[in-house]
Amino acid sequence: MQHALVLDIGNTSVKLGIVDDDSVRVSFSLPTDIVQGGDLLGLRLCELLKQAERETGPLAIGSVMASSVVPAMNPLLEHACRRYLGLKVRFAHLDVPIPLQNHYENPAEVGADRLVAAFAARRLFPEAQSVISIDYGTATTFDCVTGNAYVGGLICPGIMSSLAALSSRTAQLPRIPLSVDNTCLAPGHNTVTSMNQGFLFGFAAMSEGLCARLKEGLPGPCPVVATGGFARAVAGVSTCVDAVRPELLLDGLRLLWLECRGTGGAGQ
């Protein structure tokens, strides 16, 4: 069976996955680092591929598909894959069209990650008239698809970036690891609990309110798909999320790879 390496290059981290026809077999995460050279990145990729084989068995990597919102990382990845894997990188939105009509005023302004997530959400619910994908990443983004058209979305603060900003600008609020153990809203009796409750339920309420308002202007039914590091935690206390897919972007890249492979476009 053929496999592909797919990468979602974000502002904070690079998510990597090994995919086949059916699923994301295994995934990893690296910090986004534009200072590293292409050789270091290539060596890291080789080590991760060895680890993937230890976990899944032999792999036949024949393609590399990536989405990137960090242009400075692109040449590093191209060098790494060319020298260490002998493969050419195909970038979603640049080399490989994402099969959605883009209704943004300036289509180039939409990040490839948002379009790939919207495409994957559309494929997850093909019969629904509309679909909303929410990505709880560095920013929290809401992206809307009606029919086969990406109709736009929202960009809101991210959970961890908001937490870091709050702690850095307030003398008495500590930097805390966000805990998501408590699924019942109650007034906090200490600073850490108050912050945890405020952030978890605050973002859940924001998601519910924004989805309700977005759905007023979208043909229904309109399921909501959540992804990103805190998707499962927010969905656990929210009433608006219909599906949680932590690997939504990697699966979207897998689907693009399959489409291109069918036309001979995702090879070396």
Structure description:
The chain has helices spanning 38-56, 74-85, 112-124, 159-169, 191-216, 231-236, 248-262, and strands spanning 3-9, 13-19, 24-31, 61-68, 89-91, 101-102, 130-136, 139-146, 149-157, 224-228, 243-244. It is globular and about 55 Å long. Strand 7 and strand 8 form a beta hairpin. It starts with a strand and ends in a 6-residue tail after the last helix. The protein has seven helices and eleven strands. Strands 6-9-8-7-10-11 form a six-stranded mixed sheet, sandwiched between helices. A five-stranded mixed sheet has the order 3-2-1-4-5, with helices on both faces. The model is unreliable at 263-268 (pLDDT under 50). The chain is 38% helix and 25% strand. By secondary structure, the chain is an alpha/beta fold.
Keywords:
single chain, 268 residues, globular, alpha/beta, disordered C terminus
Topology:
Blueprint (H helix, E strand, L loop, with lengths): L2 E7 L3 E7 L4 E8 L6 H19 L4 E8 L5 H12 L3 E3 L9 E2 L9 H13 L5 E7 L2 E8 L2 E9 L1 H11 L21 H26 L7 E5 L2 H6 L6 E2 L3 H15 L6
Parallel strand pairs: 1-4, 4-5, 6-9, 7-10, 10-11
Antiparallel strand pairs: 1-2, 2-3, 7-8, 8-9
Helix pairs in contact: 1-2, 3-7
- Number of DSSP strand runs: 11
What structural class results from the helix and strand content? alpha/beta
Low-confidence stretches: 263-268
What's the helical proportion of residues? 25-40%
First-residue to last-residue Cα separation: 17 Å
General shape: globular
